[in-house]
């Protein structure tokens, strides 16, 4: 497996640079904010991830269950306090593996997934923290619950499926002002009684922080550009 070409030194320095930008943005806002930096390690192998672990970072995000299964159990043998987030779409036939692998699933987006996750968590006696993904741009090609259905869906997940819905997540359209989508997500979350928001990536995380993000998902700004994997 060939990972993207970025040096150990670069990835560690990049992580530090992102952390400084987060602290600077919080200072500019004049607020006391608790921001979780999710280092998105999809498409990067264990060798590329190890330097970030060695400097103390512990929260990571993956898009695919199978990819996570191939590298994180081994890394957890050395670093037992890793917190792993699933930030990509979840297929129902991968739910059992996802429940065993991940600590947080940020992409609950339909009734079937809510039902299957509830069943699998009960089966394995696990209590994952969950986020409902909202399709704030109503894009046909993108996963996520429609904005107008979000509050009712959150309530159903909580009351019918007894899921621990911690917050909301979104991925704004690439050609639109992300602030509009972050503002919408924050509004929906507050109306649903939630206080956690996974929004903001490498290009817009500072904007997301200004709109109340508590989880920012940073990949390329830490690990570099992803190349095709073979």
Protein traits:
230 residues, 9 helices, disordered N terminus
In short:
By secondary structure, this protein is α/β, with parallel strands linked by helices.
How would you describe what is shown here?
The structure is a single chain. This protein has 230 residues and is α/β, with parallel strands linked by helices. Helices cover 43% and strands 15% of the residues. The chain has 9 helices and 8 strands. An 8-stranded parallel sheet has the order 7-6-5-4-3-2-1-8. Strand 5, helix 6 (150-159) and strand 6 (165-169) form a beta-alpha-beta unit. Helix 4 (95-101) packs across helix 5 (111-124). The radius of gyration is 17 Å and the shape is globular. The protein starts with 7 loop residues before the first helix and ends in a 7-residue tail after the last helix.
């Amino acid at each position: 497996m060939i990972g993207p070409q970025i040096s150990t030194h670069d990835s560690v320095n990049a992580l530090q640079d992102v952390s400084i930008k987060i602290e600077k943005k919080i200072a500019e806002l004049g607020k006391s904010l608790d921001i979780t930096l999710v280092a998105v390690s999809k498409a990067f192998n264990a060798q590329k991830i190890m330097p970030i672990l060695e400097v103390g970072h512990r929260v990571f995000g993956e898009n695919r269950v199978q990819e996570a299964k191939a590298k994180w159990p081994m890394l957890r043998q050395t670093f037992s306090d890793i917190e792993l987030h699933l930030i990509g779409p979840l297929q129902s036939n991968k739910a059992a593996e996802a429940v065993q692998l991940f600590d947080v699933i940020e992409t609950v987006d339909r009734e079937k997934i809510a039902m299957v996750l509830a069943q699998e968590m009960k089966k394995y006696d696990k209590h994952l923290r969950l986020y409902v993904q909202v399709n704030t741009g109503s894009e046909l090609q993108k996963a996520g619950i429609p904005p107008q259905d979000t509050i009712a869906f959150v309530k159903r997940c909580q009351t019918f499926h007894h899921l621990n819905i911690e917050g909301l997540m979104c991925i704004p359209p690439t050609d639109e002002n992300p602030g509009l989508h972050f503002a919408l997500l924050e509004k929906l979350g507050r109306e649903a009684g939630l206080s956690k928001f996974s929004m903001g990536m490498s290009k817009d995380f500072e904007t997301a922080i200004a709109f109340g993000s508590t989880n920012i998902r940073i990949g390329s700004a830490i690990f570099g550009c992803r190349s095709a994997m073979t």
